[in-house]
Design brief:
The protein is mainly alpha-helical and 111 residues long. It is 56% helix and 4% strand. It has a single domain (14-101), classed as Orthogonal Bundle (Multidrug-efflux Transporter Regulator, Chain: A, Domain 2), CATH 1.10.1660. Strands 1-2 form a two-stranded antiparallel ribbon.
Length: 111
Amino acid sequence: MDHDGTAPIQGFVVEEQLELTLVELCQACHADEAFVVRWVWEGVLEPSGDTPQNWRFRGDALRRARMAWRLSRDLEIDSAGVALALDLLDELAALRARLERAGGDHGPAAR
């Protein structure tokens, strides 16, 4: 317990601890295996392992795969376009984080 009588809360981010196979990732994001394989070749997802049967995806790949699937399905963007869109979204998130660290405006106008 801390000096004020409260116990600190400890936890971990499940995404970082999670590891998914190709089949599990496909099931979790509702995407066909062919889409996920193309996303790997385009650099959208970066599994460990040397063949699709041995690929293992970290938990954060699930978020990217779900976003990739929505871009593919809803906007009919091809795999190369999905890779570009996700790279741009990552860049935007990094710039927003930098702006926030620098103490920039946090209002809607900053977005």
